[in-house]
Amino acid sequence: MQQLGGEECLVPRPRGSLPKACAIGLASVVTAAILVLEPEGFFRHVSTAILILTVGPLLHGVFLLSEECLHHATTRYRGRRLGQMVTACVGVCTLLGVGLAVLLFVLTKPQPWRDQWSMVILACVLYPLLKTLGVLGPSEVEVSEICETKKMNVAHGLAWSFHLGYLNLVLPRLEGSITAFRASHNAGPFETRGSRKLLILLPLNANITHTLEDEDTNIHFHDNLPDTEIDRAGVRGRVYKHSVYTVLDKDRQAHHCVVEYATPLLTLYKMSQESSAGFGERDRREQVLLFYRTLQDILDRSVECRNRYRLILLNDEHEDDPHYLSNAILKNLDQQEKEEFYVPPFIPQPEVDHPSHALPIIDDWHRAEPMSRVPTIMISHDMPRTLREPVENSEDLSP
């Protein structure tokens, strides 16, 4: 994954398994302590705890199942079998927990249960009530983790749509468009390898301007790349465009590159402006970061898009700098030039017949291809040979 410089600390990492490890550790310590302090009542305590923790969710699942069967069996499940609704409402793990509790109950002597039945029944009945009222509901962190794990966030859908509906189509054709552009403009722009990538801007506030000149006076529109026409979804020759911009550095030196905003961020911004969407500023910022992380993961695994793009995350805390956008673009261009170099594609040269006894002249070889040229890869199609010539040894010959 590419580095972001100062913005890399803003992107949230996937949540780890620390809560699970803490829960396992605490449960192990408490279980060991009860087994040591009260070994004769160990199974009784375990059975009681499992019953309370499983029968309550089972009752809550039964209540959910009644709602699904009466009102949603046709619309949500298309009249499918009851087993699918049971699994969706109760869960396999809950059923296994109840089975384990019943097994422990059978193995435990019935006498000690007489004083605990009232507590078990009361706890199992109160669980669905507290769960329905939201007292035992999942926290915001749990909901966020579930959405991230199951790819249910708005950002995940937008990132996949942006990749499959746009980037996966245009990025493989970007090099050809730039080559055609250079041919029609006397090969002026795009002299460096870094400038031949599509620079995609992602502001954290998702507030996108439609003209970059309004955002930064050091950025000027230069021209458009040749249109890319693709037959798409019944539209013959759908046109995809890319704009070339001139970015001026502090010495007023011009740098040309293809720059554009990530258009799905417009959707996130518009959603935050609509009260009916239930999408606040905090949610928008979180979704922008998840959009960046998801899109980066998708593009890292895409062979067609590899090394043809650059994601630039823009921190909105620098809005007071009038040239922050141009500085961020130039910083990424300079970083690319330091990280990589351009190896031009191999073009086979016509073979020249030489006498088999003739050897290449060293001076002519140096004059034809100077040592200061851009390095190329030399591939030989000959079979490997030994470095030593066969030497005849007269002592091995018999008289």
TrEMBL record:
All copies of domain STING ligand-binding, residue ranges: 153-337
Main subcellular localisation: cytoplasm
GO molecular function terms noted in the UniProt entry: 2',3'-cyclic GMP-AMP binding; cyclic-di-GMP binding
Any coiled-coil regions, as ranges: none
Keywords for the protein's UniProt record, in alphabetical order: Endoplasmic reticulum, Membrane, Nucleotide-binding, Transmembrane, Transmembrane helix
Catalytic activity: H(+)(in) = H(+)(out)
Its membrane topology: Multi-pass membrane protein
CDD domains: STING_C_metazoan-like
GO biological process: autophagosome assembly; cytoplasmic pattern recognition receptor signaling pathway; defense response to virus; innate immune response; positive regulation of defense response to virus by host; positive regulation of macroautophagy; positive regulation of non-canonical NF-kappaB signal transduction; positive regulation of type I interferon production
Subcellular location(s) of the protein: Cytoplasm, Perinuclear region; Cytoplasmic vesicle, Autophagosome membrane; Endoplasmic reticulum membrane; Endoplasmic reticulum-Golgi intermediate compartment membrane
Superkingdom as given in the UniProt entry: Eukaryota
InterPro entries: STING, STING_C_chordates, STING_C_sf, STING_LBD, STING_TM
Cellular-component GO terms for this entry: autophagosome membrane; endoplasmic reticulum membrane; endoplasmic reticulum-Golgi intermediate compartment membrane; Golgi membrane; perinuclear region of cytoplasm
Pfam family, one: STING_TM
Family affiliation: Belongs to the STING family.
Protein name: Stimulator of interferon genes protein
